[in-house]
């Protein structure tokens, strides 16, 4: 808990190296493969741009979001995980600096989130969770947001009640000179 609070307050002690997010995403899926009631749809192209990141912190973000998705589907369901290279232009709703990014999408088919709660999802201590009769602490997504901001990235969420939730993570990438990027 102390490490999570430090990460939230200061972004933690980031040790960034240029590396691929693919192993982190595969490890997250493997970590939860024991749930036989979950179908995993994973789409990870081999040519993703490398990201300058603290892999431990980004793994924490990915695992937190996957874990939230699994909690939203206690009776089982489907989780889609995908990644792609995107180029963000000057004016964008994500308030990201223009440049190259790796976009990671994690989608569950759980209960979804009420529209009035979407704007508060990354606020510290905000939670809609009750697990075993206990309320969640409301730090998980705010920590994810803080980590991604300290990596000069961001996180976005889309949700529909009864349909599920999609989290999109954006991390600045080192694009290679070939034209593989898709505009966003």
Textual characterization of the structure:
By secondary structure, this protein is an alpha+beta fold. Helices cover 28% and strands 30% of the residues. It contains 5 helices and 10 strands; from the N terminus they run H-E-H-E-E-H-E-E-H-E-E-H-E-E-E. It has helices spanning 2-10, 22-31, 55-71, 115-118, 140-150; strands at 17-19, 38-43, 51-53, 77-88, 99-108, 130-131, 134-135, 154-160, 164-172, 182-183. The strands form 3 sheets. Strands 2, 4, 5, 8, 9 and 10 form a 6-stranded mixed beta sheet that branches. A hairpin with a 3-residue loop joins strand 8 and strand 9. Helix 2 (22-31) runs parallel beside helix 3 and helix 3 packs antiparallel against helix 5. It is globular. Residues 177-184 have low confidence and may be disordered.
Class per helix and strand makeup: alpha+beta
Beta-strand residue percentage: 25-35%
**Total beta-strand segments:** 10
Instruction: Name the average pLDDT.
Output: 82
Span of the ends, CA to CA: 36 Å
Oligomer: single chain
Order of helices and strands: HEHEEHEEHEEHEEE
Q: Outline, from the CA principal axes?
A: globular
The residue fraction in helices comes out at 25-40%
Q: Compute the gyration radius: what is it?
A: 16 Å
Number of discrete helical segments: 5
Major beta sheet summary: 6 strands, mixed
Give unreliable regions as ranges: 177-184
